[in-house]
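ENCODED BACKBONE
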Amino acid sequence: MKKSTTGLLIGSALVVGLSGCASSASQSSSQQQSSASSDGSWYQHPVVCGLAGSLIGGSIGYATSSSSDEESGAYTGAAAGAAIGGLLCADRTPEPVAPQCPSYGEVPAGVAVDAEGCPLDSDGDGVPDYRDQCPGTPAGVEVNANGCPLDSDNDGVPDYRDQCPNTPAGVEVNALGCPDSVVLQDVNFEFDSAQLTSNARNVLNGVAERLVSNPDVRVSIEGHTDSRGSNEYNKNLSQERAQSVASYLASRGVEANRMRAVGYGEEQPVASNETAEGRFQNRRVELDEWN
């Protein structure tokens, strides 16, 4: 039998065998999509297929070469066959697909979802609607696992509205989250005027933010002075200072009709006017619920 015929017969037999390996490997791969680490049969391994391909390519290269370049033809065919065989039997098992919405866990049937298949979260607080016990939470407000705003001191007034966030446990509070009127610490004025200091404006920014978030509450802004100066002068100055605070809060979004400004002058001291420290405590602005 001629060399070319022998080579082609061997090559044909090996091609059939290699095709069977690749076909089996492909079928096994499709059946094992759920387990990327599953091992196929030994003959499906890319190394085995590469060896088979090398024999096929070498045989064909030898059989189709002239007698002067049989060796180089066999080498070339073997190299090409090994590469093709390895590719035919390469593992084509698809990578496992990550869950679309892993943070939500198992989603019950019938739950409304968005275009990406994730449960709706209408208020954007990270808790899907079907689990959210406090829908409509304002944007940016920190919530607990039930989607409700945090209430660190458990007084019934959530932190983002609470003007007194550290009320002791069990103390009854008003709608501002305070047991009583609260002194606005560090809300001070320029000497002998109603002009707010820059630090006072920074403090009032936080007060305004919580009042804006608590739209059903009306507040009384009350100004107080020490006893230096006349009664009338102090009363006027305290009124102007209370009004200055109200005006600033209004500029930060608090509706003017939710506030009243009252000046008490030196009438309601909280400490002795005989000492510098006492007078400092008496010069204050308080915030209270206005019923």
User: Anything to note?
Assistant: Confidence is low (pLDDT under 50) at residues 32-39. The helical segments are 3-31, 46-63, 70-88, 198-212, 231-251, 276-282.
